[in-house]
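Exam prep: given the inputs below (a chain plus fe (ii) ion), describe the expected output before reading on.
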Amino acid sequence: MHIIKSSIQFAKQEYAKHDKNHQWGHVQDVMKTSLKLAKRYPKTNLEILKLAVIFHDITYKKYATHVDDSVKTAEKFSR
Ligand SMILES: [Fe+2]
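Solution:
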């Protein structure tokens, strides 16, 4: 399966566990803004950008640790 498709499939399950402000819709909002901004930067690797957006809040139990926790989840997924 393509990395974006498999990431979305995985991420939707993970975001469903979060509070109402960090559901899949949040990723969709961030994706829309990110892709809009990327148009101004034609050298942007869109696959990397999309993966970053998909995983940016993937583990959100505590605000203070959510960045590091999300990185760990992304690393585990990518192995
Ligand atoms: Fe976010």
